[in-house]
């Protein structure tokens, strides 16, 4: 039986009468980058806080490395680093002193050479006081804290928030290197292009419920197709009015379609009007995400 680094069963959290997450069944495999995707308020942070035993579930169970998150939290945290979405730092400490303290508290220490490498790659001056840092530099301190111990599992909540584009790419490189090392990353974000770039699988959470888990390439290839047709004759207004087909734009004899069903019928109709040119632009993860959140959750 495969060992999951993270597994939840029926995990549910209510804040009084307000929903956090509902019946969340999640499995994260060893050595993968798992994208946890959803807008603010969908339940991403609540899920992470239950995994780290910051809050307790209303019902259901959560394990990491086969250990119960409530009963064996101390042991679990020996293998995990966490970057929260809202990072609180000590204003009168320098970045270097804070990270040295975190290394000491960790117990196993962090290699000084690797910590220095992270300073350089993230363009962080660790000698400055926390109160002098911009939001982006505070985020860099959090990133060094998360990566410097080379943990078995990294839980990252919006890790590129506040960073300039070059540093964002460095963070994605660090995530790739973590995966290449055989370690696991739980990557929570609402930046869809980043999820598409680094993640192996993605879970889409909507209103506290996991509505889809799939490999990124499967989501982007199989959910719907976009067609751009340049035809010899002008098609009638309802030429492509098939179930599962939506006409998104028309300019003379050029027609743009989104096709979820009846692709054969679409092509037969296009042939009847004479195809001069046809393109099938790639579908992005963002468009699939909007399909889940813009309708009834079925892309």
Tell me the layout of helices and strands:
Blueprint lengths: L3 E12 L2 E12 L3 E5 L6 H8 L7 E6 L2 E2 L4 H5 L2 E4 L11 H12 L5 H10 L13 H13 L5 E5 L7 H16 L3 E6 L2 H7 L2 E6 L2 E7 H7 L2 E7 L13 E7 L2 E6 L3 H11 L1 E5 L5 H10 L5
Parallel strand pairs: 3-8, 3-9, 6-7, 7-8
Antiparallel strand pairs: 1-2, 1-4, 4-5, 9-10, 11-13, 11-14, 12-13
Account of the protein in words:
The chain is elongated, with a radius of gyration of 23 Å. The protein has two domains: 216 residues, P-loop containing nucleotide triphosphate hydrolases (Rossmann fold); 59 residues, Alpha-Beta Plaits (2-Layer Sandwich), CATH 3.30.70. The mean pLDDT is 90. With 299 residues, it is an alpha/beta fold. Strand 1 and strand 2 form a beta hairpin. A six-stranded mixed β-sheet has the order 6-7-8-3-9-10, sandwiched between helices. The chain has a four-stranded antiparallel β-sheet with strand order 2-1-4-5.
What's a concise summary of this model?
By secondary structure, the chain is an alpha/beta fold. The chain has helices at 44-51, 73-77, 95-106, 112-121, 135-147, 165-180, 192-198, 216-222, 263-273, 285-294; strands at 4-15, 18-29, 33-37, 59-64, 67-68, 80-83, 153-157, 184-189, 201-206, 209-215, 225-231, 245-251, 254-259, 275-279.
Descriptors for this entry?
four-stranded antiparallel β-sheet, 30% strand, Alpha-Beta Plaits, alpha/beta, 10 helices, Rossmann fold, elongated, six-stranded mixed β-sheet, 299 residues, 2 domains, single chain, 14 strands
